[in-house]
């Protein structure tokens, strides 16, 4: 066991590995280390990282051994002749038909590395069943009789064809990845810059709106105080008028009494006194009107001011809530390639309508072919998002994994599987929540056609609400789950006679 473990231990990373194809020198490595060593070799010839046997200079075996001549480096080694050849002495092997079957490889210092250790014959064949190099005697002995055996050069040609195909595929994938990375970088830059500019603009608009509201509040409080002051002045004026009336009446009596005292005719005096006596006595005995101390009704002023402040606070909160929704609102467009042929997508990709006749759309692997459904282009795997929709008719609004099936009836309808959560309004305007084929009938109905969807991916929360008057949110249903895949928004539309449609409302 110890020997087997040592044999299957990578000499570079010291990790155990399974069966591996050894290098021609006999050493074996785990796949990861072999690939890393091969990648680091670059354009140079690859050599075994352990023995490094191929790194020395291989000289030509056919050049004369004369100290006066410069040593010629070999460019190929012939495994049939078992000699290394420089460019000049290699020409016969390249030109004469007699040498066409000879196997030429990169220059080797030790040809014995390419010999069969059992028969001492050069490896010319490869057994694909045992994944090992073999010589002609190995074949004759019969151990590989029923195995698929090919010449080394033939295997090389076949593998090069396969490698060329894989190389092109890897090259295309690299280009695709680079393009995707560039597009993602550009999109991120655009989204972040546009979002930043939009957010600042919205905050500035909110600040301007709040300043306007503060100005209105100050004006309202000043008007309330001025109105109360004017009312207090009017009350004082009324009291002054009553005092003036009483004073005028008393002055009239005073003048009348003075004229009687000056009267010389006793008969006229007696008649006048007796005629006015009762009324005059009543007027004199009645007290003068005493006006109250001038004051302002502070309680009513404070009540009015408090009401104005409450209106201001409610206005401010509403403004902040709208700002929050605007900042959380994520761009949303519909994926035409996913739309069922009975769904008509608008040019701006923000609206979808159920139609009666199938549209002439091309086949696409992402297209729903049974249920009249469509999903958004955008995919979300983190963060908090908010959308407002205008809905009409028989509709189904869902948050779904982007990996939902598209090509069958079973398990592809929103809410009828474990990977989608939906809210449905039927033809009678009754609402129901769906998940994993479980239907939850809701007791409420929407009074309008304005729906809000809030998604918190990290906490696994999905909230459907109706947008009421003054932009208030009236919760309809909430799902709590734990997301394990990226999600997107999905719309399902039925009953074209109900004018079923959904429109994504764009925030300004």
From TrEMBL:
Entry keyword set: Coiled coil, Immunity, Innate immunity, Metal-binding, Zinc, Zinc-finger
Coiled-coil regions, chain positions: 160-187, 222-253
Annotated ranges, domain B box-type: 111-152
B30.2/SPRY domain residues: 312-508
A Gene Ontology cellular-component term: cytoplasm
GO molecular function, one term: zinc ion binding
Source taxon at top rank: Eukaryota
Record-annotated RING-type domain positions: 10-51
Listed Pfam families: PRY, SPRY, zf-B_box, zf-RING_UBOX
Any one GO BP annotation for this protein: innate immune response
Alphabetical list of CDD domains matching this protein: Bbox1_TRIM8-like
Protein name: Tripartite motif-containing protein 16-like
UniProt organism field: Phoxinus phoxinus
Record lineage: Eukaryota, Metazoa, Chordata, Craniata, Vertebrata
């Amino acid at each position: 066991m110890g020997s087997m473990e040592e044999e299957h231990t990578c000499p570079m990373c010291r990790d155990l590995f399974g069966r591996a194809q050894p290098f021609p020198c006999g050493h074996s490595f785990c796949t990861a280390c072999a690939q890393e060593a091969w990648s680091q070799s670059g354009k140079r010839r690859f050599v075994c990282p352990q023995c490094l046997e191929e790194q020395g200079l291989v000289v030509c075996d056919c050049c004369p051994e004369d100290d006066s001549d410069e040593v010629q480096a070999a460019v190929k080694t012939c495994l049939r002749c078992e000699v290394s050849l420089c460019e000049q002495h290699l020409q016969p092997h390249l030109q004469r038909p007699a040498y066409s079957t000879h196997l030429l490889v990169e220059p080797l210092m030790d040809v014995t590395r390419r010999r069969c250790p059992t028969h001492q014959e050069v490896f010319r064949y490869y057994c694909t069943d045992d994944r090992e190099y073999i010589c002609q005697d190995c074949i004759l002995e019969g151990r590989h009789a029923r195995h698929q055996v090919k010449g080394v050069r033939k295997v090389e040609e076949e593998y090069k064809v396969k490698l060329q195909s894989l190389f092109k595929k890897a090259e295309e994938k690299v280009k695709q990845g680079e393009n995707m990375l560039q597009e993602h970088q550009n999109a991120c830059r655009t989204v972040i810059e546009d979002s930043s500019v939009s957010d600042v603009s919205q905050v500035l608009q909110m600040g301007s709106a709040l300043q306007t509201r503060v100005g209105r509040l100050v004006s309202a409080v000043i008007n309330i105080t001025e109105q109360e002051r004017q009312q207090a002045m009017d009350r004082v004026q009324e009291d002054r008028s009553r005092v003036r009336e009483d004073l005028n009446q008393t002055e009239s009596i005073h003048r009348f009494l003075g004229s009687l005292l000056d009267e010389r005719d006793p008969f006229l005096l007696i008649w006048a006194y007796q005629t006015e006596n009762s009324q005059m006595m009543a007027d004199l005995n009645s007290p003068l009107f005493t006006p109250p101390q001038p004051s302002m009704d502070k309680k009513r002023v404070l009540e009015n001011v408090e009401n104005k402040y409450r209106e201001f606070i409610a206005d401010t909160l509403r403004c902040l809530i709208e700002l929050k929704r605007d900042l959380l609102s994520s761009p949303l467009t519909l994926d035409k390639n996913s739309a069922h042929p009975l769904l008509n997508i608008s040019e701006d990709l923000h609206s979808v309508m159920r139609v009666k006749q199938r549209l002439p759309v091309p086949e696409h692997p992402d297209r729903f072919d049974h249920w009249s459904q469509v999903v958004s282009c955008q995919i979300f795997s983190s963060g908090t998002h908010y959308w407002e929709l205008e809905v009409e008719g028989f509709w189904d609004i869902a948050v779904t994994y982007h990996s939902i099936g598209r090509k069958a009836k079973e398990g592809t309808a929103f809410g009828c599987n474990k990977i989608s959560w939906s809210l449905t309004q039927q033809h009678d305007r009754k609402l129901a929540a769906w998940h994993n084929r479980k239907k939850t009938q809701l007791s409420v109905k929407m009074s309008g056609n304005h729906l809000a969807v809030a998604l918190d991916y990290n906490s696994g929360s999905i909230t459907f609400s109706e947008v009421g008057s003054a932009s208030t949110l009236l919760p309809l249903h909430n799902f709590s789950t734990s997301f394990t895949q990226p999600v997107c928004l999905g719309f399902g539309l039925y009953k074209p006679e109900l004018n079923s449609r959904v429109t994504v409302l764009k925030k300004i």
